[in-house]
Amino acid sequence: MKIALFGKNADPAVIPFIQELIDKLQGSNGVTLLYQPFFEDIREKVHFQYQPGLFINQSEIQGRVDFLLSIGGDGTILDAVSLIGNSGIPIAGINLGRLGFLSGISKDQIIPAIDAILNSNFILEQRTLLRLETPGKLFGLHDFALNDLTVYKPNVMSMLMIKTWINGDFLNSYYADGLIVATPTGSTAYSLSCTGPIITPDAENFVITPIASHNLTVRPIVVRDDCTIRIRVEGKAREFLVSLDSRIEKVDNSVELIIRKAEFKISLLRLPDKSFFQTIREKLNWGLDNRN
Q1: CB count, 10 Å around CB of 137?
Q2: Tens of pLDDT along 266-285?
Q3: pLDDT tens digit sequence for 128-137
Q4: Looking at the structure, do residues 136 and 234 belong to the same domain, yes or no?
Q5: Start-to-end CA span in the chain (Å)
Q6: Domain that holds residue 100
Q7: Alpha helices in 27-65 (DSSP H)
Q8: Which of 64, 197, 269, 286 has the highest count of CB atoms within 10 angstroms of its CB?
């Protein structure tokens, strides 16, 4: 089995877990490729039995690997999604961060998780992405997001007026600090912190969640993911910020944003003993009696 490893900067505290992973993979007679910037960061900290192959972009691993292991937290997985794009390479996340909704393999499960992957004992979940359409392709080829698109105010002094349409039908003028359009995967991210609902990964919906709405009766709304969402920012602010997952750009308020479901999905690897409901119970501490 051919496996690619993707990561960012490695904190000294997690080097022992990375070493454990490298030892397991290189001792399993599998072909392992490392993301070159990650390799450069760990090469003096980790011992390799043999020199691994390196890659820097999607074209260098497309059709050459069976899986990509993302080493870090959920932010690292979002960067991995941007890297692999529509290549169809499944992603498995090893959580060396904190909360880790997407990174389902904990650092103390590395060995049994790799054994399960090598023995094809896993489940692949198809996750919907959204795509942003703008004149001039604001984000270039990386105009998609696994979690969310967010419109932000440009500074602490301003408030945005965000006009929003669904399939051409006017929805609302949001007077707020910003607006989030989240996928089911992103419903447990920024949208959740802004009181948005949790949606199961297989739901065919998007969530539109205002950030600090000036009107307290304005609540998040769930819409079908086959609709077209159009956003226009008006008012005093001449510019605003737009983010797609971890990527962010400054935008002139003359630019309209069109959001649709992307034409491809991302495959996330899940071990059989970890369900979505079990994950949210554990991460959100549901069911705990804190009265003592």
Answers
A1: 11
A2: 999 988 888 899 888 888 88
A3: 999 999 998 9
A4: yes
A5: 50
A6: 2-122+271-284
A7: 36-42
A8: 269
Q: What is the dihedral of CA 271, 275, 280, 286, to 10 degrees?
A: -120
pLDDT at residue number 136: 87
134 and 111, same domain (yes or no): no
pLDDT-flagged residues of the chain (< 70)? 99, 291-292
Is the same domain home to 113 and 82?
A: yes
Place of tokens 């501490």: 285
> How far, in Å, CA of 248 to CA of 25, rounded?
35
What pLDDT sits at residue 292? 63
Per-residue pLDDT, 18: 94
Which residues contact residue 106 at a Cβ distance below 8 angstroms, ignoring those fewer than 6 apart?
94, 95, 100
For residues 138 and 255, state if they share a domain. Answer: yes
Q: Given this model, what pLDDT does residue 213 score?
A: 94
pTM of the model: 0.93
CATH of the domain at 222: 2.60.200.30
Query: What DSSP string runs through 114-174?
Result: HHHHHTT--EEEEEEEEEEE-TT-TTTT--EESSEEEEE-SSTT--EEEEEEETTEEEEEE
Asked about 41 being catalytic, the answer comes back as: no
pLDDT at 33: 94
Q: Which of 74, 79, 148, 177 is the catalytic position?
A: 74
Q: Are 179 and 279 members of one domain? A: no
Domain match, 259 and 135 both: yes
- Looking at the structure, do residues 93 and 118 belong to the same domain, yes or no? yes
Residue 100 vs residues 188, 203, 289: alpha-carbon distances, Å: 10, 20, 23
- Structural domain includes residue 292: no
